[in-house]
């Protein structure tokens, strides 16, 4: 996957700049930070950069390339959060990095809530005092092995405002940068003290509206954090022209389409943005995605009691999927109740009847186990309890940094 190179630069204090230039005369192999690069720089964040990029940064600061490899090890293996804690690096190099405005890019945990089933939802406080959610979901398999899934956000809030989603009710602030996405995974690993095995882009926000940063985060998670592409799922409610673009990267990750309805009229009521992306168009794009990548599309379907959960809806859904190809999988999600919502959770009987109707028509379906109900784990719930605008410096709400366990 061709990824755009991050541009970066430095603006060293005069004394250090002169020292670097003097050293350059003695050794022509050492490069000096470019003022031109400094004027073009978009980011001073180390997290998210590749091994090659970090080696180049070391060279630009008059260091040997192996110092870049040390940077890589400190960020991705030891997961050190502050440059001054990079004890393996010379003090002068650390100081030069900091004085040039570089930082690791890790953010503090504002609050953590643990559910009785072990699910942990985090609120991470970003540099601009916005809060973003991420969820760690531990799973024990029948064979005794364990998995840890990180459900990550791609935006602060969401502009699409699906009618059943708590995130949409909280409003939209901005897109996340790639390092802010990667940081969520590292925060989960740190809290659980184990590696994340799976990542799902199913947290706050619409990933396809932030595709550049999502793809950069995907690269880092795969190449640097070493999570296999097939262990990563990118979920979308559907944004025109983006599924085809994603297919062009030929990722081995799973595309999950949040469908939620078997026909256009009902889908528009549940997902207002569906008005600009007709169901037939989105299904054709999913079919083309499969033909381009040979990766099966998974369909997410939130079951809302009395709205889209009848056997008739299941039959209509099966007919829709068969019309546009075979090999589809439906992931059924019983609605996770949120305060102020007009929707209700369907009965277990309704859920089983829906599954049976699909399977009898040769559509594979699974019911997602509801996790973290007692930890406000529905997307956007916990964040809405704390913030719909940036935290104010010195505000008492900022004092809540400790992990609170409700288990």
TrEMBL record:
Its cofactor is [4Fe-4S] cluster. Pfam families: Radical_SAM (PF04055), RlmN_N (PF21016). CDD domains: Radical_SAM. GO terms for cellular component: cytoplasm. The keyword Hydrolase does not apply. One of its GO terms (biological process) is tRNA methylation. Its main location: cytoplasm. Residues 144-374 form the Radical SAM core domain. It comes from the Eukaryota. It is found in: Cytoplasm. Keywords: 4Fe-4S, Cytoplasm, Disulfide bond, Iron, Iron-sulfur, Metal-binding, Methyltransferase, rRNA processing, S-adenosyl-L-methionine, Transferase, tRNA processing. The keyword Cell membrane does not apply. GO terms for molecular function: 4 iron, 4 sulfur cluster binding; metal ion binding; RNA methyltransferase activity. NCBIfam families: rRNA_mod_RlmN (TIGR00048). This is Probable dual-specificity RNA methyltransferase RlmN. The lineage of its organism: Eukaryota, Viridiplantae, Streptophyta, Embryophyta, Tracheophyta.
């Amino acid at each position: 996957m061709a990824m755009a190179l991050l541009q970066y630069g430095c603006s060293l204090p005069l004394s250090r700049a002169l020292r670097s230039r003097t050293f350059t005369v003695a050794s022509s192999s050492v490069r000096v930070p470019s003022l031109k690069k400094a004027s073009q720089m978009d980011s001073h964040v180390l997290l998210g950069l590749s091994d090659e990029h970090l080696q180049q940064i070391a060279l630009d600061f008059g260091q040997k390339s192996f110092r870049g490899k040390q940077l890589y090890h400190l960020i991705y293996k030891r997961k050190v959060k502050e440059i001054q804690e990079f004890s393996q690096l010379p003090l002068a190099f650390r100081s030069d990095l900091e004085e040039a405005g570089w930082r690791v890019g890790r953010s503090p945990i504002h609050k953590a809530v643990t559910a009785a089933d072990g699910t942990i939802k985090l609120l991470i406080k970003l540099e601009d005092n916005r809060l973003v959610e991420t969820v760690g979901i531990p799973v024990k398999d029948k064979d005794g092995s364990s998995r840890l899934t990180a459900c990550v956000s791609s935006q602060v809030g969401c502009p699409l405002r699906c009618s059943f989603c708590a995130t949409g009710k909280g409003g939209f602030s901005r897109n996340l940068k790639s390092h802010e996405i990667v940081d969520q995974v590292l925060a989960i690993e740190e809290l659980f003290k184990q590696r994340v095995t799976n990542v799902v882009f199913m947290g706050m926000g619409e990933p396809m509206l932030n595709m550049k940063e999502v793809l950069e985060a995907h690269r880092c998670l795969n190449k640097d954090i070493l999570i296999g592409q097939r262990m990563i799922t990118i979920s979308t409610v559907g944004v025109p022209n983006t599924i085809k673009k994603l297919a062009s990267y030929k990722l081995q990750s799973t595309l999950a389409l949040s469908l939620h309805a078997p026909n256009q009229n009902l889908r528009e009521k549940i997902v207002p943005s569906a008005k600009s992306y007709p169901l037939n168009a989105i299904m054709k794009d999913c079919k083309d995605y499969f033909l381009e990548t040979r990766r099966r599309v998974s369909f997410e379907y939130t079951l809302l009691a009395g709205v889209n959960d009848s056997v008739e809806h299941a039959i209509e859904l099966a007919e829709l999927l068969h019309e546009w190809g075979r090999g589809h999988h439906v992931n059924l999600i019983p609605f996770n109740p949120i305060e102020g919502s007009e929707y209700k959770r369907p009965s277990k009987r309704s859920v089983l009847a829906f599954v049976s109707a699909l399977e009898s028509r040769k559509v594979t379906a699974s019911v997602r186990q509801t996790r973290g109900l007692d930890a406000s784990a529905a997307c956007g719930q916990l964040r809405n309890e704390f913030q719909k605008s940036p935290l104010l410096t010195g505000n008492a709400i900022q004092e809540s940094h400790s992990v609170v366990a409700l288990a």
